[in-house]
Write a structure and sequence with these properties.
394 residues, alpha/beta, 7-stranded parallel β-sheet, 41% helix, 27% strand
Length: 394
């Protein structure tokens, strides 16, 4: 489907995915109307290139009036993109009915109000596209996501039901399920968000999907594969995976490398933590901030893992020359303990490297999903250490 010349109404376009999608639609030649509660922000998004009509999606009459205004100004709506959304983390042990109901009002009832406004004219013309932005959070139940996940699961079901029922009536339905995207909704998250992408990238995926008449658009690809695989896990396994106590979600990488180099060459090299820049594939760079390499020395380590750059300030906790070094690093989402032990063996040195990660806050619930990626990282670190040590003199 060619987007150029189409009339597209983006609901929930004052920021984030909705705003980025509206801009991308204009870039591709569509006539775009944008709606949300915050009119001033809509005008900033529009920059004079879109029809701006404020609306509260929880008010059915307001939504109907806005749909009529859009059609009157731009012509019949060819595509509606429902991007309005509400997210707030919930605690099942301190249930908040008002927060849950707000999820229902915006994510589910709001979508229903828009459907009530656009479906009748689309059915009458026997053409149109309904694109609903749900989330991969609707695929399985996740801790802290009682309100958001439940309404996103309902959206997935609703959109699929519509697709089946409307297929023969000329109206297509596209389900859009993003993973983590940098938006106002995710800005306050204190947990690691794997594979996170920018809103502009999300908008490109959405518009590409619409042009290709996709029934489903899920992105980014790695998150899509991960969460679709998660749907196949038996309920008992899924529950056991996520109900672990936080102290059981610590993860460890442990590798042993033997090299034909003397310990008095290997130890000084590896005990200088800045050398992780050379052999650790996740490290962007490590710099010495203060100290002489002994206990209390501080290093600033910058890593890139699953598309996200993270900084950890490591402090040397223990140093036993030619035998052992231990460091501890911490930030808002993870505490890390790195230990290297050294053993002189016949013909060289044996190094055992152990990295233990204890995740904090909501990140600890994502820990089980990170295990395969950490395992691969450990394999690459082992190979990197082996190659680097082999190149040392001696």
């Amino acid at each position: 489907m060619e987007l150029s010349g189409k009339t597209v109404w983006v609901v929930g376009a004052s920021s984030g995915i909705g705003a980025a999608t509206a801009r991308e639609l204009v870039r591709r030649g569509a006539r775009v109307a944008v709606s949300a509660r915050r009119e001033e922000q809509l005008r900033e998004v529009s920059q004079g290139t879109m029809l701006v009509v404020a609306v509260d999606v929880t008010d059915a009459a307001s939504v109907a009036d806005t749909a009529a205004i859009v059609a009157g100004a731009l012509g019949p709506v060819d595509i509606v993109v429902y991007s309005a959304g509400y997210w707030k983390q919930m605690d099942a042990t301190a249930w908040d009915s008002e927060v849950f109901e707000q999820h229902l009002r915006v994510n589910l009832a709001g979508m229903s109000n828009v459907l009530a406004a656009v479906l009748p004219p689309m059915l009458e013309r026997r053409r149109g596209v309904i694109a609903g932005i749900s989330s991969v959070a609707g695929y399985r139940g996740l801790p802290g996501s009682g309100g958001y996940g439940a309404t996103k699961a309902a959206q997935l079901n609703l959109l699929e039901s519509l697709r089946v029922e409307l297929a023969s009536r000329g109206v297509r339905v596209t389900t859009i399920s993003p993973g983590f995207v940098r938006t106002e909704l995710t800005a306050g998250n204190r947990f690691r968000m794997p594979f996170i992408i920018d809103a502009a990238e999300a908008a490109t995926s959405i518009c590409d999907g619409l042009e290709r008449n996709r029934s489903e658009v899920v992105f980014p690809l790695r998150m899509a594969l991960l969460m679709k695989a998660a749907r196949l896990l038996p309920t008992r396994v899924w529950t056991a995976l996520w109900s672990r106590r936080p102290e059981r979600t610590a993860m460890q990488i442990r590798r042993t490398v033997a090299v034909d180099k003397p310990i008095d060459v290997v130890f000084p090299y590896l005990s200088d933590f800045t050398t992780t820049t050379h052999w650790d594939p996740a490290t962007v760079h490590t710099i010495l901030e203060r100290g002489d390499g002994g206990v209390g020395t501080e290093y600033l380590n910058t890593t890139r893992f699953l598309g996200r750059t993270t900084r950890l300030r490591y402090v040397v906790q223990e140093l036993v020359p030619s035998r052992r070094i231990q460091l501890r690093g911490e930030n808002a989402t993870v505490a890390a303990h790195d230990t290297m032990t050294f053993l002189a063996v016949s013909g060289g040195t044996e190094v055992t490297y152990t990295a233990e990660f204890r995740f904090k806050g909501m990140t600890r619930y994502l820990a089980p999903l990170l295990r395969p990626a950490l395992r691969r990282l450990g394999d690459k670190a082992e190979a990197g250490m082996r190659t680097t040590l082999a190149a040392l003199p001696g």
